[in-house]
Design goal:
alpha/beta, Rossmann fold, 2 domains, 12 helices
Length: 286
């Protein structure tokens, strides 16, 4: 039987959707509202209530139902290009000729660190003054010695937050390191596309971003010192990068006219339904 395989980050996994969130209740056993949970402040963390499993409300399951095929959703929250490629490598053994494979690539700037017992994503696009130097995973700063010192003043904290805000699109790396990582992510994506297609499956690439990886790589190239920009001693990506990625789907999964999920970060049930309809109509209806 033909199957649908999906790979990606939290947006493909269905993070924050109703069936993958453990209810937080008051003393009477009644679920707290979003505002009531926010009022708990430091005593509440969304990361502690989310289940690490795909949601039945996420677009892969909705799309599979429309296609009348079973789905294996390999996506996991926080995944970077490296992790998504690894999902594909691990999952490829179960992909058969004629299966449908959809890879929804995440943010190119995302950087994950891998350990045997843990994966962490040191990335946050808006440092929260109320949480000092917060990254996306609570405790990451302390792990790397980035937590504020008792000797810090408000001025030094503000200076550091401003630095994080200005540099965060490259995940705290300089342009030389960023270009190296972006370039190798394109290589990894090209290789992933190749071995997925070698399974005989029908492969489709989507993205959570509007800007293509080629555009983002070129933007960083422009920031390099003049002596490193030209000419290409390494192969120019325009000579070998050939992965076709749909970047036009991003405004659908993040339709601003539809309220986000309860954690105010991820797409809601309505977003996922609309996105599944988009993918079906755009790629499978005929």
């Amino acid at each position: 039987m033909k199957r649908l395989h999906t790979f990606g980050c939290s947006i493909t996994q269905g993070f924050a959707l109703p069936d993958v969130v453990k209810p937080v209740c008051n003393d009477e056993g009644e679920p707290l509202t979003h505002k009531e949970m926010e009022a708990l402040g430091d005593n509440f963390n969304w990361n502690n209530v989310h289940l690490y499993q795909p949601s039945e409300y996420a677009w892969p399951k909705i799309l599979a139902d429309k296609l009348d095929v079973p789905v294996i959703n390999h996506a996991r929250r926080g995944a970077c290009f490296n992790q998504i490629s690894r999902q594909c490598a691990v999952g490829s053994k179960d992909i058969k000729p004629g299966d449908i494979v959809i890879v929804m690539w995440t943010y190119l700037s995302r950087l994950s660190l891998q350990w045997p017992a843990r994966t962490t994503v040191p990335f946050c696009n808006v440092p929260d003054p109320k949480s000092n130097w917060q990254t996306i995973i609570i405790g990451f700063n302390k792990f790397f010695g980035l937590s504020p010192s008792d000797n810090n003043t408000d001025d030094t904290d503000e200076h550091i937050r401003n630095w994080i805000h200005d540099s965060v699109r490259h995940t705290y790396l300089d342009y030389l390191s960023v270009y190296d990582r972006y370039y190798n992510s394109l290589v990894l994506q090209q290789m992933t596309d190749g071995f997925l297609k070698a399974t005989g499956a029908n492969v489709l690439h989507l993205s959570v971003e509007i800007d293509s990886v080629e555009q983002q790589l070129e933007q960083v190239r422009q920031e390099l010192p003049e002596s490193l920009k030209d000419p290409y001693s390494i192969p120019d990506p325009t000579e070998w990068y050939s992965v076709e990625v749909d970047y036009s789907c991003t405004p659908v999964i993040f339709d601003s006219k539809i309220p986000l999920a309860d954690n105010d970060m991820h797409p809601s049930v309505k977003h996922h339904k609309k996105f599944a309809d988009y993918v079906y109509n755009h790629y499978f209806e005929n």
